[in-house]
Design goal:
Elements lengths: L7 H23 L2 H20 L7 H20 L20 H9 L2 H4 L4 H12 L4 H8 L3 H19 L12 H15 L3 H6 L1 E9 L3 E4 H14 L4 E7 L2 E8 L5 E11 L2 E7 L4 H6 L2 E3 L3
Parallel strand pairs: 1-6
Antiparallel strand pairs: 1-2, 3-4, 3-7, 4-5, 5-6
Helix pairs in contact: 1-2, 1-3, 1-6, 2-3, 3-7, 4-6, 6-8
């Protein structure tokens, strides 16, 4: 297949279809469903900008994964600037050990487990064992040699296998009392459908990001966001954690209170300055480490 420029509508359609897979890769690489969505959004913007700049693409799906991979690497570098980093020597040759048992192990591994691997190992295991790319496709996405990919895959699989047999001693996260008080007040007003009361908590310059839908700036625009929830009856809010962060869980009372999404709230004193609503990105919920905080 020769390099070609495909139209924007075709690219946008492809991005919609690939977004869950791109997020699965980014989330496991970053160790956070929330940060994974940040990476995907950055990758989408870069892909559209590259298209508008006249980019010629031979294999569109691998090209998009390459952009997501680079965005994830940039994100990790920004996050780890102040941390010491270790390098991993490449092995020159390792046989491809991909088998169904290893695929099942990688697919079931938690985000926390993947964070115990090096970034190189995470990329190789996720692309091959979770997303099903071939070794050569993984080389294309990561710009690594075949020997380096095989080395990272071998070591990553061995580490995941060891982690799977280790006891889970992760501590339950704790919530700051002031943060809990603010969040519970917000949740109580929301659940009571007292949206006038909710609006009184909102800053004039509030920013609302409904992921995969829209962005609203200012209190006036944000009113439409609350109006949409007021018209729906398939939700109830609860306090919890998502990837260790305090969050508001969106449960579905019509489906045995299954978590269908979550909200992240940023405060400025007693005012809400930003809302990120993950209701319309179900793949984030599927990848996230979610913990309900009981009363």
């Amino acid at each position: 297949m020769s390099a070609a420029k495909f139209d924007r509508a075709e690219l946008e359609s492809m991005l919609v279809g690939l977004r869950p897979k791109l997020h699965r890769y980014a989330a496991r690489l970053a160790g956070s469903a929330i940060e994974g969505e940040d990476i995907v959004q950055e990758a989408v913007v870069k892909a559209l900008a590259a298209h508008d700049g006249g980019a010629l693409v031979e294999r569109p799906e691998q090209w998009l994964f390459r952009i997501a991979h680079n965005a994830a690497q940039d994100h990790l570098r920004r996050r780890q600037r102040e941390r010491s980093r270790t390098s991993e020597a490449d092995m020159t040759a390792i046989a491809d050990l991909s088998v169904s048992a290893e695929t099942r192990l990688a697919t079931a591994a938690s985000l926390r487990s993947f964070m115990r691997l090096t970034p190189t190992q995470r990329s190789a295991v996720i692309l091959v064992d979770v997303l099903g790319l071939s070794l050569h496709e993984t080389c294309e996405v990561t710009s690594a040699t075949l020997a380096a990919v095989k080395a990272a895959l071998h070591r990553g699989r061995a580490e995941l296998k060891a982690l799977a047999s280790a006891p889970d001693d992760v501590a339950v996260p704790r919530l700051d009392p002031e943060e809990e008080r603010r969040l519970r007040r917000y949740i109580d007003l929301f659940n009571a459908r007292d949206f006038d009361g909710v609006r009184r908590l909102i800053a004039e310059d509030v920013q609302v990001d409904v992921l995969n839908r829209t962005r609203l700036n200012g209190k006036k625009e944000a009113s439409t966001y609350f109006g949409n929830y007021d018209r729906l009856g398939d939700w109830a809010l609860s306090l919890g954690f998502v990837d260790g962060q305090p969050a508001i869980l969106i449960r579905n009372p019509q489906a045995h209170d299954a978590v269908r999404g979550f909200m992240l709230i940023d405060w400025r004193g007693e005012e809400v300055m930003a809302i990120r609503d993950f209701r319309h990105v179900p793949y984030c919920v599927a990848e996230a480490d979610i913990c309900l905080l009981t009363d």
